[in-house]
Write a structure and sequence with these properties.
Elements lengths: L2 H9 L4 E5 L6 H13 L5 E8 L3 E4 L2 E4 H5 L5 H16 L6 E6 L3 H11 L4 E3 L7 H6 L3 H5 L6 E3 L1
Parallel strand pairs: 1-2, 1-6, 2-5, 6-7
Antiparallel strand pairs: 3-4
Length: 155
């Protein structure tokens, strides 16, 4: 069997694919790769997730997104994120059964939780190269997710 056949055979088994997007300028590249995976696995459902930055409230040692306490997910910031996500889906001709804008303590924690809660078996995510102090302080979200992802990952 050649490499292409092995890849196609392994992709065919996915039932729930999650595409995480930060909606930055290069997100369309990742979306096109997701489309290729979906073309080889027509029975799979696609979910698309975007996480917004949210104010955090501290309860003892635990941090909780403020929007989850107040139920405030209709503010201008949230509406803008939903509009950008809808444009992203249209522009890339992605047919998602679920597209969601949510808040989390961190992107990596939000993605891992989503994968666990929604039985995702393939996560597709892009990776940005960070340099200097940003790389040291923040690192790449994809690098933080890989050791904790409960499913296969395409970075």
């Amino acid at each position: 069997m050649n490499e292409r056949m092995l890849i196609k055979e392994s992709i065919m088994g996915y039932q729930h694919i999650l595409l995480f997007t930060d909606l930055l300028s290069d997100a369309d590249i990742v979306a096109q790769r997701a489309k290729r995976v979906l073309a080889g696995s027509p029975e799979a459902k696609l979910s698309v997730l975007h996480i917004v930055e949210d104010d955090m409230v501290r309860f003892g040692y635990e941090l909780v997104p403020a929007s989850s306490l107040s139920g405030e997910t209709d503010g201008e910031h949230w509406q803008e994120a939903r509009a950008k996500l809808a444009q992203f889906l249209d522009r890339n001709e992605l047919n998602a059964v679920n597209s969601e804008v949510t808040a989390a303590i961190s992107n990596d924690q939000g993605i891992v939780n989503y994968c666990n809660n929604k039985n995702v078996d393939l996560l597709i995510i892009g990776r940005h190269e960070r340099r200097g102090i940003a790389a040291w302080l923040v690192g790449a979200t994809a690098d933080n997710i890989l050791p904790n992802a409960p499913c296969d990952s395409l970075v």
